[in-house]
Specification:
heterodimer, A: about 110 residues, mainly beta, six-stranded mixed β-sheet, five-stranded antiparallel β-sheet, about 0% helix, B: about 120 residues, four-stranded antiparallel β-sheet, 11 strands, about 45% strand
Amino acid sequence: GENVEQHPSTLSVQEGDSAVIKCTYSDSASNYFPWYKQELGKRPQLIIDIRSNVGEKKDQRIAVTLNKTAKHFSLHITETQPEDSAVYFCAASIPGAQKLVFGQGTRLTINP
Amino acid sequence: NAGVMQNPRHLVRRRGQEARLRCSPMKGHSHVYWYRQLPEEGLKFMVYLQKENIIDESGMPKERFSAEFPKEGPSILRIQQVVRGDSAAYFCASSPVRQGSGGRETQYFGPGTRLLVL
């Protein structure tokens, strides 16, 4: 079955700098890749997603890139702000499968 | 449009008791997914249901755990004879279409039920 690896597990950056979180997946058939942000004690919230027919997607300070050949995708946050501090999860979905397979999460801390 | 609703938000049970977790999907969503999150870990898929049908329960433990999504009312995840290892956050998600079908398959999560087994 699909396996998703996420790195790093923790990331600390200075406010205003960029943060990059990377994920790799095992099943080349995966075609949907969402990213969720989870604040302490809260629900995971979708922040951006990408499908395998595009290589990059951007929404204001957040962007996701996908490399199907290498089977990895990355989340990029620019001009980080303290409210970006949270745990971020990547996930992947295979056509015909009924679930999302999540990475282990990255705890992002933005230092003022 | 109300989001995914879950109750209770917190549940404390003693070992051997039963836990019942409820999930009401977003309006217009007929696909429900349950995930478990252990402390400091990611979300693990448990089960996927449509109305009156369990479609995929490959992530459910074989014993003590069951799920349903009746024609009327919320989806229910039931854990019988709870043990300390069942302590976790249980999240429900819903989508307007089946995950993996392409198109509007985004899953929206509820606030979770935090189960503590004493």
